[in-house]
Amino acid sequence: MKSAAERAKLPPADVPRDGPNLTGEELETKLSTTWSNPPGFVGWLSSVDHKDIGRRYVITALVFLALAGVLAIAMRLQLARPDNDLIGAARYNEIFTMHGTTMMFLFAVPVMQGMQIYLTPLMIGTRSNAFPRLNAFSYWMYLAGGLLLWIAFVLNVGPDVGWFAYPPLSGPQFGVGKRVDIWAQMITFTEVAALAAAVSLTATILKQKAPGMSLARMPIFVWATLVTSLMVIFSMPSVALASGMLLSDRLVGTHFYNPAERGDALLWQHLFWFFGHPEVYIIFLPATGFVSEIVATFSRRSIVMYPIVVMSLVATGILAFGLWVHHMFATGLPRIGYSFYTAASMSVSIPTGLQIFCWIATLWEGRPQLKVPLLYVIGFIFTFVIGGLTGVMIAAVPLDLQLHDTYFIVAHFHYVLIGGAVFPLLGAITYWFPKATGRLMSETLGKIAFWMIFLGFQLAFFPMHIAGIYGMPRRVYTYPAGMGLELPNMLSTLGSLVVSTAVLLFVVNLVISARSGRRAAPNPWGAPSLEWATSCPPPPYNFPHIPLVSSRTPLWDAGEKLPVVHGLRVEDRELVLTTVMSAEPDVREPSPEPSPWPLIGTVATTAMFVCSIFSPWAVLVGVVPVALALTAWFWPKSPRLSGSL
Amino acid sequence: MRHEPEFADDLSALRTHAFSYRSLTWWGIIAFMVIEGAFFALAMAAYFFLMAQEQEWAPRPWSPPDLLAGTLFTAVMLLSEVPNTMIKRAANAYDVAAVRKLLPVMSAIGLLLVIIRGFEFNSLNVFWYDNAYGSIIWALLFLHTTHIVTDWGDTLVLWQLMKTPHGEDPRRLVDTDENALYWRFVWLTWLPIYVLIYWVPRLFR
Ligand code: HEM
Ligand SMILES: [Cu+2]
């Protein structure tokens, strides 16, 4: 036997590799065998293909959007008239908590990560993502957390303390029963999922960019993904720690949030918002990434001032960590604290403003085509600017103290969340739909849905500003007649019915187009980035040969032929690792095979987490199966003694 | 229309493994260290936040934790860096035999540390349910213990793995190198926690 050191230096042995002698049909048959999922249902459950995982993420998140949307309609029906008794006070508490929690933790963050998981490897020209099994685990954990919350709701033990679950209301004294424990444990699930996905995305972007795609040539969406993944990594531990401490206050009698034993309820607010404010940008920055890609493609020119856009993304990501206290203005702060956090909150609008100018300049300089994705972008800019302006208004403490906890706030955050994230998302789904399915969505249905969503949205949410100024508090199940609140509330309800009908229309369009839409060529919009270099939908191995990149807009600059590198093994899953900054090819890296262990690991972890709601000992016992599953997951299959093969 | 390929560089001569920042898993480990580092940093921030509520720390009548077990733990932990560095060097030199010899040593040290940690929990002089001070002290120690146990489990599995023919695979030496890197993280994060648990409650009486 040769020593490992000798083996490491062996010359490349003769195995099939892609290249001039192995290309086209023959290559693709071989690559398909190597990269396809195993057959059958078990194969489906074992998939580690980022396209499967991303698609599952997005579809699951859209289901949660629909569920939370139904709850929104229920609330709006209750609030349509004064003194309505469709829904009682206690049930209403549950409903707004479930709506907010589902929207934030089970829809908005996961849908963005799902899009990122699907698109990133395609946009940077690699066969798979980094740590694909971790990625699969991420999806299953997310699904388990979502099921936990919704099964509990159906069994009438859903949480009812608002989406940020402030103690003492959520503490052991007032939050009786298991409702809050379910909420807090759902947080654990979704945070593990989000962190796992973020780690995978970060490593993918840093190490797997196609040769030549230096950081300065990365598509802006990939930049947005990198920044948000880092934000996830820095912010999610905060809420996971906070909810862990809440659970332990409730289950084993610690006193973190209990003032009677020298704890402090405000500690929760600090930890929660240290995560909660960045979370808004974790939702919003990917959306700006969508916008940049869509704007460039439909203006037929690259983004004006790319470096400014990238720097704004990075600056927003950093500033977002210095703003959390603006959610706590009403708790009382030192004077200097007020001024500081007001200034910081206002300053975060500067980088976003710059980005908006760059998009407008690009549209101005280019030849914009008003296709559906671009309509959503324009709807986004209009709506988000209003939401941003009301944001600057409530960053001023005196006004915030007046408007705190009123419908003005509800209006503000739906303008930024729906305008800033859902509109770009719907545009992005329309834009990348042909990539994922091979078919285009209907333009006519798309345009009708857009206008209904856009106008319906303004009708639903603009009047809430007025209701808020008139003093209507949020989180109340009804209001008395004769305070001027009838008209705005009725309009809001009508508007939300329009929006929900339109969202239904969007879904109908998705389903019809997936079945019988117009067939899409590989690059139906004439876009510049690499995901459009491969077929629609992409094969399991993404690209037959790995592209070689020499500009920011590779497809616009390629002539008849696309430059590629070659020499990767085709009978084993293999990727190219490149250097972080300049993307020089560095290592050929094996990529893990499909495996059922991420799913089995999730089942074991779920058993442990759910049982720990009832007894702390479950952690000690439950950790054993988790450890076994993880060991099986990481245990390599056959040793690759082949040195540098 | 899909583009025809225009063949440029041939990558077949690239290596199939590399150490440190050239390895993909290294970046994964670093990311997890950042995540766990954030947990520790936030828990420490919570510690100071709660400390600000008190006139004295540890609040009377509770006395600060006894020093013996924690200090012993710290000493063993620091000494463990000697075999740890040896393993890291051996892995980088492709010296499988040395790695195979040293991993049982690290596993034994892990066991020893877990036992001492048990005594530490016994010497805190406060329970988690006594007051917020007790809660945060226990939380810090618990949080760090999860790391000790995880890395110990990791090392045990790696030891078994390296005994098999898998040990000859250079990629497993990269794993070994990264396991040693993670151990450094575990003991480095212990140092501030040691100070917070054992010394700050003495100094602020
Ligand atoms: C047609 C769509 C929607 C309608 C009609 C709607 C309606 C509402 C209403 C009426 C409330 C206030 C309940 C109250 O305070 O009494 C609310 C709260 C909330 N909504 Fe929406 N919403 C919609 C979509 C969304 C989306 C897409 C998101 C996030 C991405 C979202 C996130 C939230 C959050 C976080 C709360 C706060 C919950 C709480 O107070 O704990 N909503 N929504
Ligand atoms: Cu905020």
From TrEMBL, chain A:
Keyword Nuclease among record annotations: no
Pfam families linked to this entry: COX1
Primary enzyme class: translocase
Topology of the protein relative to the lipid bilayer: Multi-pass membrane protein
Residues of the Cytochrome oxidase subunit I profile domain: 44-550
Pathway field: Energy metabolism; oxidative phosphorylation
Transmembrane segments: 57-75, 95-119, 139-158, 182-206, 218-247, 267-291, 303-326, 338-362, 374-397, 409-433, 445-470, 490-512, 617-635
Disordered: annotated span: 1-24
Listed EC numbers: 7.1.1.9
Annotated keywords: Cell membrane, Copper, Electron transport, Heme, Iron, Membrane, Metal-binding, Respiratory chain, Translocase, Transmembrane, Transmembrane helix, Transport
Catalytic activity field: 4 Fe(II)-[cytochrome c] + O2 + 8 H(+)(in) = 4 Fe(III)-[cytochrome c] + 2 H2O + 4 H(+)(out)
Compartment annotation: Cell membrane; Membrane
Functional note: Cytochrome c oxidase is the component of the respiratory chain that catalyzes the reduction of oxygen to water. Subunits 1-3 form the functional core of the enzyme complex. CO I is the catalytic subunit of the enzyme. Electrons originating in cytochrome c are transferred via the copper A center of subunit 2 and heme A of subunit 1 to the bimetallic center formed by heme A3 and copper B.
NCBIfam families, alphabetized: CtaD_CoxA
Family assignment from sequence similarity: Belongs to the heme-copper respiratory oxidase family.
Record-given protein name: Cytochrome c oxidase subunit 1
Lineage, uppermost ranks: Bacteria, Pseudomonadati, Pseudomonadota, Alphaproteobacteria, Sphingomonadales
Gene symbol of the encoding locus: ctaD
TrEMBL record, chain B:
Keyword Transmembrane: yes
Main location: membrane
Sequence similarity: Belongs to the cytochrome c oxidase subunit 3 family.
InterPro entries linked to this entry: Cyt_c/ubiquinol_Oxase_su3, Cyt_c_oxidase-like_su3, Cyt_c_oxidase_su3-like_sf, Cyt_c_oxidase_su3_a-hlx
Membrane disposition: Multi-pass membrane protein
Sorted UniProt keywords: Cell membrane, Membrane, Transmembrane, Transmembrane helix
Species assigned in the record: Sphingomonas daechungensis
Protein name: Cytochrome c oxidase subunit 3
Localization per record: Cell membrane
